[in-house]
Amino acid sequence: MKKLNHYILAAFLLCSSISIAQQTPASKQTKEKAIAIIGATAHIGNGEVITHSIIVFKNGKIETVGDSRVIKMDFSNMDIIKAEGKHVYPGFIVPNSTLGLGEIDAVRATQDNDEIGSMNPHIRSLIAYNAESKVVESMRPNGVLIGQITPQGGRISGTSSIVQFDAWNWEDAALKVDDGLHLNWPSPYSRGRWWLGEPSHLKPNKDYTKQVEELNDYFLQNKAYQNGEKPSKHLPFEAMQNIISGSQKLYIHVNDAKGITDAIEFSKANNIKNMVIVGGYQAHQVVNLLKQNNIPILLKRVHSRPTSDDEDYDLPFKMAKILVDNDILVGLEANGGRMERMNSRNLPFYAGTCVAYGLDKEEALKLITSNTAQILGIDDFCGTLETGKDATLFISEGDALDMRTNKLTRAFIQGRDISLETHQTELNERYSKKYKE
């Protein structure tokens, strides 16, 4: 019996080792030797394109970006990557993501993106982030190398943090800790409960005013706490100090025009200095208000259907262009429906759809690089291919916004040459061999 138990344990360990196989994070780029990518078309991420580029990075930072036909330098102590005919891009950034907070939707034990309770400003998503997630790993072959890891649920969900997608643990992954607080704005409308025989169309939410008042009361209580003597610590209010001071952003998740308008007024009334709209499906109806208050938007998933019968069928596809044409700072997110984590890998193709519906290609690229970096407050070290910034970039055989030609050959995060192998690429290779035989 004991021998049988040993066999069972050995089989279990073997299966476990196979099921949790993970690519080892890349080693840090050395100070002694630089890497030079020569000849590729460089898409800088700020609208500029260099057709015969040279990009040199060392110790994780970009040192040179320019035209290879003009710049002359000594390559004797460099690793040379010849990339003629290929394209170089800054790593794509996915905001408002639950990557690393959940693995298998059908297994509750793997879900850590939602906490019990309504007001949870003290909840920190970063410490729950699983750097060894197979879903996170699968982002990299499409060029998605950075993400904002965001909690969900309740009225105030907690704080997000920004991570890079090649790390041993959450401490290694962190690029910006606790960048902002996430608030889910109440909806002015609700749908009838079909299971009770009610009509399924939209109707006014009779509790909307009460829910907004509850939010105002909570922020007033927080203000009183911040200005009081604080005989004992109130952890949720302690976590909101940086929102009031303006060093942390307030991300308000809201889609309808009335909700956006009320959320902006709420922020002004509570002296919120840094506010971002997340979702913003009807933002095109309030562009003047957004411009007047300089409010950026992380736009709901492009590959969505219209939510109303009287909307254009292609409204979600052309929304980014409408907002960009009205000088609104826009970034794209993958949220806005089911399977958000898995759909995050399609981020570049959402930008590609914006191109198909009228947006300039380099403007569309900014939606997932420099614009998003600016909105998240990380544009000082990533989002574009510029001297002094992190060498977080990749080389593609073709246009990275087109799923037919987005084929990465190399990728780097902070100068580290990362693996593009994943559980899915391994399965692809395995079964490709089977059917070739």
Automatic annotation (TrEMBL):
<keyword id="KW-0732">Signal</keyword>
<dbReference type="InterPro" id="IPR006680">
    <property type="entry name" value="Amidohydro-rel"/>
</dbReference>
<dbReference type="InterPro" id="IPR051781">
    <property type="entry name" value="Metallo-dep_Hydrolase"/>
</dbReference>
<feature type="domain" description="Amidohydrolase-related">
    <location>
        <begin position="355"/>
        <end position="399"/>
    </location>
</feature>
<dbReference type="InterPro" id="IPR011059">
    <property type="entry name" value="Metal-dep_hydrolase_composite"/>
</dbReference>
<protein>
    <submittedName>
        <fullName>Amidohydrolase family protein</fullName>
    </submittedName>
</protein>
<dbReference type="InterPro" id="IPR032466">
    <property type="entry name" value="Metal_Hydrolase"/>
</dbReference>
<feature type="signal peptide">
    <location>
        <begin position="1"/>
        <end position="21"/>
    </location>
</feature>
<dbReference type="Pfam" id="PF01979">
    <property type="entry name" value="Amidohydro_1"/>
</dbReference>
